[in-house]
Design a protein that fits this description.
The chain is mostly helical. Helices cover 78% and strands 0% of the residues. It is built from ten helices and no strands. Helix 4 packs parallel to helix 7.
Length: 200
């Protein structure tokens, strides 16, 4: 298990420094790869001593897990806001898909995702943490589906959520393998498929 050293709660300066560190680490991982981005490089990018970094995170595994955790938390909060504003499961999922797909077209986001996926095959700590994040997202999507489609059988809800995650997760791969692909055209088709997947 990856443990993050404790910093004082309600310390806005510490929170800002932690965010600064995560932003710097994310840029380093995306630009140089997980293994090439050592603590010294992250320290230079963040403008923070290596000793200070260890006051926030015990190692690079903890840093990458914190980066993904922040991304997942932001995505989940954004989806709940969309559900509240639209009151419609398909519309909320379509708008969230647009946010995620447009984010993945950013070169650094895709590079980081691919590096994490590769690291999962070598590093059981990263693999366990990423699988836990994936399960957290899946549970949220399943809870939402049950809330808005209470008449659906559990198996139907589960497979529709899995297909939704597959549709969105596959986009960075296709855009990388087929760089001439029109991302917006692909997004519109995915949104049409979301309508089909979650129609009553």
């Amino acid at each position: 298990m990856v443990r993050t050293p404790k910093v004082r709660k309600n310390d806005t300066r510490a929170d800002a420094r932690r965010r600064q560190l995560l932003d710097a680490a994310e840029a380093c991982f995306a630009d140089h790869g997980f293994h090439a981005a050592g603590m010294a490089r992250i320290s230079d990018q963040a403008g923070m001593s290596i000793g200070n970094i260890y006051g926030y995170f015990e190692n690079k595994d903890a840093i990458i897990c914190a980066i993904v955790d922040a991304q997942v938390s932001a995505m989940q909060a954004g989806l709940e806001r969309l559900l509240e504003s639209t009151g419609d499961i398909s519309e909320a999922f379509k708008q969230q898909a647009a946010v995620q797909i447009r984010n993945c077209t950013l070169e650094n986001r895709s590079a980081l995702m691919f590096d994490i996926m590769a690291e999962m095959g070598r590093n059981p700590v990263i693999a366990t943490a990423m699988q836990a994040h994936d399960e957290k997202v899946r549970r949220q999507l399943l809870d939402i589906t049950r809330r808005f489609r209470p008449g659906w059988a559990p198996e139907k809800a589960a497979v529709r959520v899995e297909l939704l995650m597959l549709l969105i997760a596959g986009v960075p791969v296709r855009l990388t393998m087929h760089p001439g692909q029109d991302g917006e055209l692909l997004l519109r088709e995915i949104q049409r498929q979301i309508d089909v997947l979650f129609e009553k």
